[in-house]
Amino acid sequence: MRIENESELIDYKGWFLRIRQPVNKPYGRILILLHGWSGDENSMWVFGKDIPKDYWVISPRAPFSAGIKGYSWREPTPGRTWGLPKINEFQSSLNPLMEMLNDWSILNSVTLKTIDLIGFSQGAALACALLLFARKHIEKVACLAGFMPEGGNEIAIPGMLSGKKVFAAHGTSDEMVPLSKGQEMVEILRYAGAEVETCTENVGHKVGSQCFKSLENFFKG
């Protein structure tokens, strides 16, 4: 099904994916959009529509129900809603996601050497987990209104993220994920050797206009 911005919604091995092909396939770069808690494969498309046209842009739906609506990157826990997840809670999404991307890339003759990520909120936490556990595949990561999952600081080792580039945007009035959590994430990533660019604006749990422009420039470089 062809929908706006020349993207396509497909069901691939049980994963619902919204995909935009690059202008010169199959040689484009790959960008994965990771939605937040209660989002879906359409939630992140506002961040992907102005990404350079040499990217494959893939927005997957998380595999677990978030409850009343939307989806989650961690399995539901009785009596618990959103919360700050532990990093090992993402393993049930992280490994199948990477396996799916590897299979999809082979099917479409796409070389899966490196991928870039944009994650929002819980999706940014998953992006941090991917950066720590699957770093050889990751080049650039944008963490929007994000946080480091609990336990991530215990995994981070000086130099392990050397050469990785991260863009971190956060609202100073964010009540869902406080700015302090985003700052802790930045400290951990820098401790591990990542080159981190930050942007803050006086907004809530969203990305402000100036940070949005900086995000676009981050992927144009």
What does this protein structure show overall?
The chain has 221 residues and is an alpha/beta fold. The protein has a single domain (2-74, 82-220), classed as 3-Layer(aba) Sandwich (Rossmann fold), CATH 3.40.50.1820. It has six helices and eleven strands. Strands 1-2-3-5-4-8-9-10-11 form a nine-stranded mixed beta sheet, sandwiched between helices. It has a two-stranded antiparallel sheet with strand order 6-7. The longest helix has 17 residues, at 91-107. The radius of gyration is 16 Å and the shape is globular. The protein starts with a strand and ends with a helix.
Overview features:
221 residues, alpha/beta, Rossmann fold, 9-stranded mixed beta sheet, two-stranded antiparallel sheet, 6 helices, globular
Q: What's the helix-strand series?
A: EEEEHEEEHEHEHEHEH
Please identify, by name, the CATH architecture.
3-Layer(aba) Sandwich
Biggest beta sheet summary: 9 strands, mixed
SS content category: alpha/beta
Shape: globular
Rounded to the nearest angstrom, the radius of gyration is 16 Å
The CATH topology name reads Rossmann fold
